[in-house]
Amino acid sequence: MFSTKIRTCSLTIIFALLTLSCAKTEPSKPGQARTCEELVQIGRNIAELVLEEIEEKELNKIQEQELNKTIKKIEDLAQTKDFLMRSSELNCSEEELSKTACLSYQGLSQKARGDITREYLRPYFEACG
């Protein structure tokens, strides 16, 4: 009787672990996107990360060296090459990406407080125009 309970408990644990390991995880990198919509959502998440990571300063108040550092940081976070490659692999049209981005990126403009982040987000806002 005791061994039956242990076996039942073990089977329950194994089943739970298998269920967890098979559960869909949310992609977080461009190369993990399975659809064009997921690729845009990953872009939205990265855009939010950029807004959190970049100090809000006005361009006319920032020194050139600091500006170059900030631009490099944005480029590293943005993973532009990875997004372009994955959108090509998924056969995402520019029109499809722009339309999806327009809806997905709504609300981000309120988080952009400085010239640098507004300039970073400009292409996303233009997609809606």
Descriptive terms for the model:
single chain; disordered N terminus; 6 helices; mainly alpha; 129 residues
Question: Would you kindly provide a written description of the structure presented here, covering whatever features stand out?
Answer:
The longest helix is centred in the first third of the chain and has 21 residues, at 2-22. The protein has six helices and no strands. It is mainly alpha-helical and 129 residues long. It has one domain. Helix 2 (36-53) packs antiparallel against helix 3 (64-78) and helix 2 (36-53) crosses helix 5.
Walk me through the topology:
Elements: H1 2-22, H2 36-53, H3 64-78, H4 80-89, H5 94-104, H6 115-126
What is the straight-line distance between the termini? Answer: 70 Å
Rg calc: 21 Å
Approximate helicity band: 55-70%
What form results from the Cα inertia axes?
globular
The total number of structural domains is 1
The SS-based structural class is: mainly alpha
Q: List low-pLDDT spans.
A: 2-23
Order of helices and strands: HHHHHH
Overall pLDDT score: 76
Would you count the extended β strands for me? 0
Percentage of β-strand residues: under 5%
Count of discrete alpha- or pi-helical segments spanning 4 or more residues: 6
Sheet with the most strands?
A: none
